[in-house]
């Protein structure tokens, strides 16, 4: 399979890329390197530097490669930063412009947005399940670590 991994230069995406390659899949990474690192992407994967918002470029990438699957990990995730610049985070994570049109050659057949597999296969369970507790925990952590993971 040929798989597109958005955010594949980031923490989660780069591990997924390594696992896909180990499984014998062909991998293309699409990442703007705003937070990710070029060296995190295995040399066996192709890295395309681009922004999700750049629909013209993204479309050309889809047309060129005809992916069998897309795994989407490009997002802004730092709790502390999200409280300082919430609109930027909101835009990057939810307001990505999208074009509605019919299926094109190369479009993946199935869209899955689920964390079920990580629960089933790795036994992962969230420590907090209520939104208030999640926000409160993130806020408390940020108070203790004003510079994020640097501390
Ligand atoms: N880190 C965790 O523990 C964790 C746990 C569960 C879920 N997740 C989810 O996994 C996803 C990735 O998280 P992560 O920890 O790998 O974050 P990360 O910041 O390490 O990686 C995100 C990657 O996306 C890229 N990116 C961000 N915005 C982009 C844009 N507009 N266009 C192109 N590239 C862009 C960044 O450069 C970076 O390489 C997020 O949706 C996050 O919520 C993370």
Give a brief outline of the structure.
By secondary structure, the protein is an alpha/beta fold. The chain has helices at 11-22, 55-65, 79-84, 86-94, 116-122, 131-144, and strands at residues 2-6, 26-31, 46-49, 69-72.
Describe the structure.
The chain is of the alpha/beta class and 151 residues long. The chain has six helices and four strands; from the N terminus they run E-H-E-E-H-E-H-H-H-H. Strands 3-2-1-4 form a four-stranded parallel sheet, covered by helices on one side. The longest helix is centred in the C-terminal third of the chain and has 14 residues, at 131-144. The chain is globular and about 45 Å long. The termini are far apart. The mean pLDDT is 88. The structure holds nicotinamide-adenine-dinucleotide.
Supply database-style keywords.
151 residues, alpha/beta, 4-stranded parallel beta sheet, 4 strands, 39% helix, globular, binds nicotinamide-adenine-dinucleotide
Terminus-to-terminus distance: 40 Å
Task: Work out the helicity level.
Answer: 25-40%
Strand percentage: 5-15%
The total count of helices amounts to 6
| Ligands | nicotinamide-adenine-dinucleotide
């Amino acid at each position: 399979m040929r798989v597109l991994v958005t955010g594949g230069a980031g923490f989660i995406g780069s591990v997924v890329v390594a696992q896909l390659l180990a499984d014998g899949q062909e991998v293309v990474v699409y990442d703007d390197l705003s937070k990710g690192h070029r060296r995190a992407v295995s040399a066996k994967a192709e890295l395309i530097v681009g922004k999700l918002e750049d629909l013209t470029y993204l479309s050309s990438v889809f047309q060129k490669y005809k992916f069998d699957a897309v795994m989407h990990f490009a997002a802004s995730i730092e709790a502390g930063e999200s409280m300082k610049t919430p609109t930027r985070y909101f835009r990057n994570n939810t307001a990505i412009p999208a074009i509605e049109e019919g299926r094109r050659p190369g479009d993946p057949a199935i869209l899955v947005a689920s964390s079920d597999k990580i629960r089933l296969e790795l036994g992962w369970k969230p420590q907090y399940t209520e939104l208030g507790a999640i926000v409160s925990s993130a806020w408390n952590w940020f108070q203790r670590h004003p510079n994020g993971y640097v501390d």
